Amino acid sequence: MTESSKLPRQASVVIVGGGIQGLALAFNLAELKVRDILVLDAGYWQGGASGRNGTLIRGAFSSPEWTRFFAHSNRLWLGLSKRLGQNVMFSRRGYTMVGEREATAQLLQRTLQVHRDCGIDSEMLSPGRLRKVLPALAHERVSAALHLPDSGVAPHHAAMHGYLKACQARGVDVRYRTEVSAIDRRDGQVEGVWVGQQRIACDTLVLAGGAQSNALADMAGVPLEGYPMRLEAIALEPTRALIGPAVALLDRLCYMHQTARGEVVGGAEVAERPQVSLGADVPVMAATAKAYAEMFPQLGAARILRQWAGLVHISKDFGPLLGAHPHLGGLHLSAGWCYGHAGAPAAGELLARALVTGVVDERMQPFAVDRFQRNCPVHEPGIVLSHFE
Ligand SMILES: Cc1cc2nc3c(=O)[nH]c(=O)nc-3n(C[C@H](O)[C@H](O)[C@H](O)COP(=O)(O)OP(=O)(O)OC[C@H]3O[C@@H](n4cnc5c(N)ncnc54)[C@H](O)[C@@H]3O)c2cc1C
């Protein structure tokens, strides 16, 4: 993780952003025998969203497109420690999506069908089964619960450590506190990037800049539709084991899990949250705590231990922007990630393969950067960020 030694004058691939997306891509490129890979990050290690998230790994959603992609990623998470040679501490504790409104129960029924069509293992929990899986839940509020047995959680520090070490062991040059300030292009082709006064030549450039994706795309002269969004989380003081699986409370746009230490960690979407600050925000904290206490009454007495925020990049349909940019040769994106922790193993693998072979995997195709121009957005009603029907 060099910060001060001389930068190379050229690289075969430059990746801007050393969050989990940039590192997962670099690792997979190195595995495909690409050499002279350079990862440049303006901040400190884990300073972006990849060091600030809720650590939940969800392996299926409500649309077939998201489900196929994230199920693949979930499968890769299961074997990731072995592949990286580092323990990413993936805990396959399951993930339960809880609906309270009747409309949400119907959505979960449709979701179950999507999972069956995609060959995903999921189960609509009967009231009796739900009491076993989540005994502390306010069962009288629940209209339906869909359970994903293969999903779970993986602490972000372990995943980031695993990817970074595996990259470095394969000779990837990863630099933090190294900001890309300009991008060179000529005749519709990327030619290099600038770090201060130094130019680094490259003909393949990947922007994995998280919340800064719009600013980076502007530098390349290819404006991107999307915006940075603040997400925040809280950790409650440790309590005895109350919550087994990871949980999404769909009607409250809220998610959570309980760590091995007993802290309940998660967050909720509140419309009036500040857009781009990292400071503490009492209304969002209070709204999250209220959702926790109403749905898990035994948490009502627990105090908030920590609060933090992070910024993600949101695309027009909330889905990732993954692959080649249609208007600038050599430019590729890994942006638009609101579930970018869960999605990193698949994104890294499939984008690396597309870069090396030119073949775009069918699980990646729906998230092509030009899909809005083609009028092909992907509608995903089961995320805890946007409102669903
Ligand atoms: C509170 C919170 C909870 C979340 N919970 C979950 C969850 O439970 N599950 C899940 O899957 N996802 C979750 N997410 C989302 C997830 O964290 C992100 O989608 C993911 O980390 C995105 O990874 P990234 O590498 O694209 O971005 P980042 O980790 O933000 O990395 C982008 C990097 O680009 C660098 N950069 C930007 N501009 C430049 C430049 N000019 N030059 C050089 N470097 C630059 C930045 O310094 C940064 O390090 C959550 C996010 C937050 C904030």
What does this protein look like?
This protein has 9 helices and 19 strands. By secondary structure, it is of the alpha/beta class. It has a domain at 93-149 and 228-314: 2-Layer Sandwich (D-Amino Acid Oxidase, Chain A, domain 2). The protein has an 8-stranded mixed β-sheet with strand order 5-6-4-14-15-16-13-17, with helices on both faces. A 6-stranded mixed β-sheet has the order 8-2-1-12-19-18, with helices on both faces. A hairpin with a 2-residue loop joins strand 10 (189-195) and strand 11 (198-201). The termini are far apart. The relative contact order is 0.20. It binds flavin-adenine dinucleotide. Residues 16-22, 40-43, 47-50, 52-56, 179-180, 208-212, 216, 231-233, 267, 310, 312, 337-342 line the site of flavin-adenine dinucleotide (FAD).
